[in-house]
Structures are given as structure tokens and as C-alpha cells.
Design brief:
The structure is a single chain. By secondary structure, the protein is mostly helical. Helix content is 53%, strand content 11%. The strands form 2 sheets. Strands 1-2 form a two-stranded antiparallel sheet. Strands 3-4 form a two-stranded antiparallel ribbon. The longest helix has 26 residues, at 23-48. The radius of gyration is 19 Å and the shape is globular. The two termini are 35 Å apart.
Length: 162
């Protein structure tokens, strides 16, 4: 069997087992995020475009923020997940297993343009296939990894005894 489990040891000596997400679930999460962002942009366009030049300017600023800044903010403030990642049980972590901060989230999200070039995310796909942790260029630069969210531990589980 193919073992993609990555073991990370924290400074406290705790060993974490991280399961990197491959290209297919990451692409699906990206498409889900694209859908909600563009639905919001369509709604904003209906409100802002009638305002002439000011509306167009506000729309373009909103488009930039939704495309580049909002995903980073969501990853920082919502346990490393945009809505698409959360729907698929994925999350972004630093390579050492710690939560992402602003610098990592902004770096990985702003470098999506490099993954897009030259042939519509072919660079990202090739980078993920060639990387042991399925990392795209933005993940390599930011020192991050996209992993499956571990299932929550049941705090009330009592071991059964015969």
C-alpha cells in the first residue's frame, strides 16, 4: 500500500501523524471555494455596478480581496480551512504541525498565480505529484501542508471491560 503518512515530532516530543491531501480533494475544495466566491461577486456586482465608476472601483477592490486576501484570512482564523476545505475535511498546517499564521497563509495564497502559469494550474498539479507531501509551489514557499483533519476524539468514551 502507498503510505503518505507524514510523522512530525513537536519540540515537546509529541509525534503527530499527518495525512497529506492529494490533488483531487484539493482541486475539489478549490472549486467549492471558487463557487461561493463567485456567487458573492455576482451579488456584489448587482449592487455596485449601477453606482457607475465608484461602483466599478469598489467591485474590483472586492474582487481582489475575495480572490487573494479572504482565503488567507479564513485559513488563519478558522482552523486552517476555507469553506471548501472544511467541507472536505481538509486543513492547512505549517510543516511542523502548528496552525498557520498570517505570513504563511498570505504567502501560499498569493503564490497561487505561480501555480496557474503557464497552463491553468498544470504547474500546481506537477508540483503536487512530484512532492512527497503533495505540496504546490505556494506550500513549498510558505512551509505549509494541506492535510486531512483528524477525527475529533470522543472525550466521553469509556473503555469497555468484559
Amino acid at each position: 500500500m502507498l503510505d503518505t503518512l507524514q510523522r512530525v515530532t513537536t519540540p515537546e516530543g509529541i509525534e503527530l501523524n499527518l495525512q497529506p491531501a492529494g490533488p483531487a480533494p484539493r482541486a475539489l475544495a478549490w472549486m467549492l471555494d471558487l463557487l461561493w466566491r463567485y456567487a458573492l461577486l455576482i451579488g456584489l456586482s448587482m449592487l455596485l455596478i449601477p453606482l457607475q465608476e465608484i461602483g466599478v472601483g469598489l467591485f474590483l477592490i472586492s474582487w481582489f480581496a475575495l480572490e487573494w486576501l479572504v482565503p488567507a484570512a479564513l485559513e488563519v482564523h478558522f482552523e486552517g480551512a476555507t469553506p471548501g476545505k472544511k467541507a472536505l475535511g481538509l486543513m492547512v498546517l505549517r510543516d511542523d504541525g502548528a496552525p498557520v499564521g498570517w505570513s504563511e497563509a498570505l504567502t501560499r495564497n498569493l503564490l497561487r498565480f505561480a501555480d496557474f502559469l503557464p497552463f491553468a494550474y498544470l504547474g500546481a498539479l506537477l508540483s503536487m505529484i512530484g512532492s512527497p507531501g503533495f505540496k504546490r509551489l505556494g506550500d513549498h514557499a510558505a512551509g505549509t501542508i494541506v492535510v486531512y483533519r483528524p477525527p475529533p476524539a470522543d472525550p466521553l468514551a469509556v473503555p469497555l471491560r468484559p
